[in-house]
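Justification of resources, computational component.

The compute hours requested in this renewal are based largely on the per-chain cost of generating structure records like the one below. Each record pairs the submitted sequence with a full structure-token output. That output is archived, and it is also reused by downstream analysis tasks.
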Amino acid sequence: PQTHDEIAELVLAYNKMIENMRERKIIDDLSKKLSSTFRLEDLISIINKQLKEAINAGSIKLFIPEQNSANTFRKVADKSSHDFGSLTIDDYSTLDFLSDHSDGFILNDAPDSVQMTFKQFSARRTDLIVPMIRNGKIIGILLFNLPEEREKYSDEEQHFALSLSSPLGLALENTLLYDELRDQERMKRELEIARDIQQKLLPKSMPQIKGFDIEGFCHPATEVGGDYFDFFELKDSKLGVVIADVSGKGTSASFYMAQLKGMMMQSAIMYDSPKKFLIELNRKIYASLDRNLFITMIYGILDTKKKELLISRAGHNALIHIKNDNSHTTFTPSGIGLGLDSGKVFKKELNEIRIILKTQDTLLFYTDGIIEAMKPDGEEFGEERLLNALIQSKLSNISEKRKNIQTQLETFLIGNKPQDDITMILIDCNF
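The structure output for this chain reads:
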């Protein structure tokens, strides 16, 4: 006959087997759910329901890394109202400790710096913490809070928590990767929209004026910039000519570019002085532009009867004037960018000059994307190469001049993509 001790051992072994079967079923069920989860919201729901019940935890908090930060983790699970904020780990020894303890640890067994880090989110020093490590990086931290009526987790519960943390870590890695890809796709779509907006804001056709050949061109860089050029028919056979560069890139640059075009269309016809117009434009832009942004611009009024150009320059690149004898002048009348000053300094610094035009003269307006375009070794295209490309094609028509500049720029870059928009306006005088 079996002794009481033998029976007790059999009961314990049976109970252990049942417990192991229960744990295996929980792990299998949880793994199946996690394997089909690619949304952080669903992952949080699984943590707050199935995982919490499986471990008999009071609550579970999940922290994931903030974007572009190696030491800040935001809380995404356990949306309790009494604790907010993020984990900010300034002590590298704490980060090292977490990285070295992917097998989990009881908070009370950790160094003081680690205990202080989790103090805001842990009411008990016997809470369990499990860092989830992938490829040497902490992708998440689980904090298993004890229920109020309990003193500590059993060894079996700690082991079970670690067993469940493994598939959870894999699911979290997949979820974060999915979110990153989704963000990249959204950003890609936003850039496509911004690039489309930018192109629609540019002139669909060039002005047709007797005695003048005019061509404008804007090639957007990989990331959308804020280059802008346009023409405005004014009274008395005059033409408004503008080239501008909004600081910054992406959708914000294209937004301000659209805003700029609207202001130009509304007000340009009211002024016969570029200086007066830019003073008014700066007043409007300063009121709406972010303080860390500004716009550079050259605005000119081409008088097709008097054969002259009146310009003002708000901190933009020079205007190049190639004369019929191949001599040249670069015009940089004083002026600061739009939006840098509310009005007094802007008005004081702004100048206006008049350029008398002769037959076979050429005018070139451009943005810094051309002269700052770099070869792989960091050498810039520069103003001298731009000037030479223009002089070399002096006898060509306006389209060939533009193509020659583009060809020489592409040859110089040796396949390197420009980092900024390439924008120019060419005006040939053929009267």
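Residues 155-201 form the longest helix (47 residues). The mean pLDDT is 85.
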